[in-house]
């Protein structure tokens, strides 16, 4: 995609996904019980194969709901999700084989070692034998935890846990990787390493959907950014195009311009 | 299958890393079975299911006291004889009222002589027209602990009354025989015409004409021991411990939910049923180890602390199958708790309350037959009752596998229903 491409939100809903769309959401609606407003309201998204897409939004904008539906954690009230052309509700198991999720919470067993965590999650992905051993080794090297492979995760720093959290999400060598705030609460060194590795993965063809609160992080990593608020994407485009189109000097000001300065204490 | 095994291996590792939690899982039923069985051994005494101690103060030191002991020692009474020179009636009364002994008997001074004289007087009244004189009854004093149960009180009283009746009857027949012999001697009749020879009298009197035989059915043939607190408590508290593992199972599910692991698991190509099964397999192992530990305690430790030895009859396979299906039911309940509750605090409170209630209702603490009629009918809803009834059928009644299939079926159905409900609930939670 050209760096200056700027697509008005809502266009995605009008068309069928192209052949190169890795992740496609159409007219997603999700309403939680005891809530007056829908968490997602006519949410549309197309992420091209090999794209590094950043989803930015304030608290309560619908990021986590969108990611949960896109990764099959729960179904939408209405709408459709396609991953690599496959409809989620029809081919859930096949999709889960090629999809990786790195949740915001560190979803690891504290009492197990790094290797034991990788082994368990690897086996649940259906990997076995020498392939599993090789994947575990690659993951340990990737997360720079080879020397700590036999230590319980409980003894790890937050940075080490985040790196392992990412490595577990990559065990099945996913074609589409979804990351929910993967760098929250870690030091600059670990964040830098994670960024480098994600860029490397993306260059090797992995499609990435990345949510973050850090606008500069999105600007640094993402080839395209969508700003979500009130359950739908309110603006979308490459960082350069977004700034050029709006005439605003930086992404943070654009973000505040689009989503408002009111506190979102939801 | 690989995914189930991976989940089981992970659960086993987590259990092994939490040694304190694991120790509690094994120590809790072990301590309970020892303490409760020791306590209930005393309850068995109070209810008359073991020998009752009778305190005897024989101030008379004559034949009556000796005959009484001889009559009663063959039964379920055990005599403790107090020295009549150092103790009096007030001492024995205080000892029984204080609960040191359940029953006390005093044979008053001169009782044997009076008894003999009055018996003789029965047959010395002649056959004239005069009205028979009243005989002065020789009275023994009986003290019964007010704390013992009504059943034991009436049982002991009946045994004592029966012994006294027998002694009196023997004495009357002996006296009748003597009177007859003297009368026939005086008439010059030959000795062989006398119906009761005093030498043979005692032996003849001891012969049974009417007997009551208890038919113990299959249990005697299978070498089953009679009901005792060990045979009741070993399976009962093993079951209680097994069902208590529901709480750590629920805890592990809630921990996964709290830490975000469940989000990662939901995104993987694996069904919640596979994860539940893997978890259940690991905890079934824990439950079976608990059962084995309690059985070993009953078999090897109990005889060393003055309790009867626990015995498993020939139906070992059926016993193991019952333990396995009880474990399944316990794990199913744990999974359901973990999915249904929102926090560990909720699960532990609800789990402990329901397991204790189900144990009480199921006959773990008090046998079902000792409950009020309504509670007996309600006990059928407790999974612990199904397990315990199956164990009792095997261990006490000597039944074989086909006879307990209904209860085993209920346990399996409980597991299936709880796991399916958990699966549905997990999907609803999403």
Describe this structure in words.
The complex is a heterodimer of chains A (266) and B (430). Chain A has one domain (11-259): P-loop containing nucleotide triphosphate hydrolases (Rossmann fold, 3-Layer(aba) Sandwich). In chain A, strand 9 and strand 10 (232-237) form a beta hairpin. Chain A has helices at residues 11-14, 63-70, 92-98, 114-124, 129-142, 158-169, 188-203, 215-221, 239-246, 251-259; strands at 21-30, 40-48, 52-56, 78-83, 86-87, 99-102, 176-180, 207-212, 224-229, 232-237. In chain A, 36% of the residues lie in helices and 22% in strands. In chain B, 67% of the residues lie in helices and 5% in strands. Chain B contains 17 helices and 4 strands. Chain B has helices spanning 2-17, 19-46, 63-73, 89-97, 111-122, 150-186, 198-206, 217-221, 229-244, 246-259, 261-267, 272-301, 316-340, 344-362, 373-378, 383-395, 401-429; strands spanning 52-58, 77-82, 103-107, 141-144. Chain B has a 4-stranded mixed beta sheet with strand order 2-1-3-4, with helices on both faces. Chain B is elongated and about 115 Å long. Classes of the chains: A alpha/beta (266), B mainly alpha (430). The interface between A and B is medium-sized, with 32 and 24 residues.
């Amino acid at each position: 995609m050209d760096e200056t491409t700027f697509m008005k939100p809502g266009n995605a809903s009008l068309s069928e996904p192209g052949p190169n769309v890795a992740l496609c959401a159409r007219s997603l609606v999700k309403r939680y019980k005891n809530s007056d407003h829908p968490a997602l309201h006519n949410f549309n998204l197309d992420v091209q194969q090999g794209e590094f897409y950043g989803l930015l939004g304030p608290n309560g904008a619908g990021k986590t709901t969108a990611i949960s539906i896109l990764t099959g954690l729960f179904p939408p009230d209405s709408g459709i999700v396609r991953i690599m052309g496959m409809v989620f509700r029809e081919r859930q198991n096949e999709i889960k084989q090629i999809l990786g999720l790195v949740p915001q919470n560190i979803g690891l067993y504290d009492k197990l070692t790094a290797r034991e965590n990788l082994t368990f999650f690897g086996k649940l992905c259906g990997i076995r034998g020498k392939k599993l051993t090789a994947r575990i080794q690659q993951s340990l090297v990737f997360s720079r935890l080879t020397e700590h492979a036999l230590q319980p995760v409980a003894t790890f720093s937050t940075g080490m846990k985040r790196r392992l959290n990412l490595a577990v999400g990559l065990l099945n060598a996913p074609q589409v990787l979804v990351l929910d705030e993967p760098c929250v609460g870690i030091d600059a060194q670990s964040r830098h390493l994670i960024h480098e590795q994600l860029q490397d993965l993306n260059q090797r063809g992995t499609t990435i959907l990345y949510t973050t609160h850090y606008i500069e992080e999105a600007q640094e990593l993402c080839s395209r950014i969508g700003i979500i608020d009130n359950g739908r994407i309110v603006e979308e485009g490459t960082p350069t195009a977004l700034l050029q189109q709006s005439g605003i000097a930086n992404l943070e000001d654009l973000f505040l311009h689009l989503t408002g300065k009111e506190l979102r204490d939801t | 299958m690989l995914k189930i095994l991976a989940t089981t291996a992970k659960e086993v590792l987590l259990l092994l890393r939490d040694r304190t939690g694991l120790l509690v899982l094994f120590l809790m039923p072990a301590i309970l079975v020892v303490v409760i069985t020791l306590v209930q051994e005393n309850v068995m005494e109070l209810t008359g299911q073991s020998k009752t101690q009778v305190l005897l103060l024989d101030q008379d030191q004559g034949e009556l006291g000796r005959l009484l002991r001889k009559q009663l020692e063959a039964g379920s009474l055990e005599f403790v004889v107090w020295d009549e020179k150092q103790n009096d009636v007030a001492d024995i009364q205080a000892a029984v009222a204080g609960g040191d002994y359940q029953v006390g008997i005093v044979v008053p001074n001169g009782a044997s002589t009076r008894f003999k004289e009055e018996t003789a007087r029965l047959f010395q009244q002649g056959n004239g027209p005069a009205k028979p004189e009243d005989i002065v009854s020789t009275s023994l004093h009986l003290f019964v602990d007010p704390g013992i149960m009504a059943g034991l009180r009436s049982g002991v009283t009946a045994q004592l009354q029966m012994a006294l009746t027998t002694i009196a009857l023997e004495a009357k027949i002996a006296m009748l025989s003597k009177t007859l012999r003297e009368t026939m001697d005086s008439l010059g009749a030959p000795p062989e015409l006398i119906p009761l020879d005093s030498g043979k009298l005692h032996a003849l009197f001891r012969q049974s004409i009417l007997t009551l035989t208890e038919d113990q059915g299959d249990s005697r043939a299978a070498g089953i021991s009679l009901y005792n607190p060990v045979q009741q408590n070993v399976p009962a508290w093993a079951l209680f411990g097994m069902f208590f593992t529901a709480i750590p199972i629920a805890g592990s599910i809630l921990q996964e939910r709290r830490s975000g692991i469940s989000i990662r698991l939901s995104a993987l190509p694996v069904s919640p049923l596979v994860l539940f099964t893997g978890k259940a397999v690991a905890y079934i192992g824990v439950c079976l180890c608990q059962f084995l530990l309690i059985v070993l305690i009953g078999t090897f430790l109990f005889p060393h602390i003055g309790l009867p030895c626990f015995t498993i009859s020939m139906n070992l396979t059926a016993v193991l199958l019952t333990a396995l299906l009880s474990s399944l039911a316990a794990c199913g309940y744990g999974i359901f708790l973990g999915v249904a509750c929102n926090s560990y605090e909720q699960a532990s409170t609800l789990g402990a309350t329901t397991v204790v209630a189900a144990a009480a209702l199921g006959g773990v603490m008090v046998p079902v037959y000792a409950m009020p009629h309504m509670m007996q009918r309600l006990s059928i809803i407790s999974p612990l009752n199904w397990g315990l009834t199956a164990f009792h059928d095997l261990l006490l009644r000597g039944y074989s596998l086909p006879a307990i299939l209904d209860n085993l079926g209920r346990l399996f159905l409980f597991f299936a229903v709880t796991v399916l409900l958990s699966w549905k609930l997990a999907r609803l939670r999403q």
